[in-house]
Amino acid sequence: MKFGGLFFLKETKLRKNKKLLFIFYGILNTFFTNILLQVSLFFFPIILSTLMSQIFNLNFGYYLYGKKVFQVKYFTKKQYLKYLISNFIIWNINWIFISSLISYNISKNLAAFLVIPFLALISFIYQKYFIFV
């Protein structure tokens, strides 16, 4: 069996469980988004760093979650608008929480990392019940 075939079988089994798929692709999306966030936090203010990473997350995540997790065949403007609104809300939560945590002498980078599970939970619920229904 080829490597690609093995991946296909595992991906097919995963498709039955949207939570596992969301976690798998969420880790991928979070990894790339947070590389951008962590690096930009060294050079830019928190609000700009979180905005840049959120714009990346918006487009990369919309494709990953829409196609790979919720198996959307055709994207609509309405879905994208809902996803855009959810990303705007999550971006605000992200920079507010990071700003709040650094007031307790937690580094910006650690604070950004600590907020991830909370943001992922909000994102999954919103996408599952409001965007890709």
Q: Can you put this structure into words, describing what you see?
A:
The protein has 133 residues and is mainly alpha-helical. It has one domain (17-131). It contains 5 helices and no strands. It has helices at 3-14, 18-41, 46-69, 77-102, 108-131.
How do the helices and strands line up, and which of them pair or pack?
Blueprint: H1 3-14, H2 18-41, H3 46-69, H4 77-102, H5 108-131
Tell me about the largest β-sheet.
none
Proportion of residues in helical segments: over 70%
The first-to-last residue Cα distance is 35 Å
User: How many structural domains does the protein architecture include?
Assistant: 1
Order of helices and strands: HHHHH
Count helical runs: 5
Protein structure class = mainly alpha
Indicate the proportion of strand residues: under 5%
- Count of distinct strands: 0
Shape: elongated
| Rg calculated over all Cα atoms | 16 Å
Short description:
This protein has 133 residues and is mostly helical. Helix content is 83%, strand content 0%. It has one domain.
Which terms summarize this structure?
83% helix; 0% strand; 133 residues; mainly alpha; 5 helices
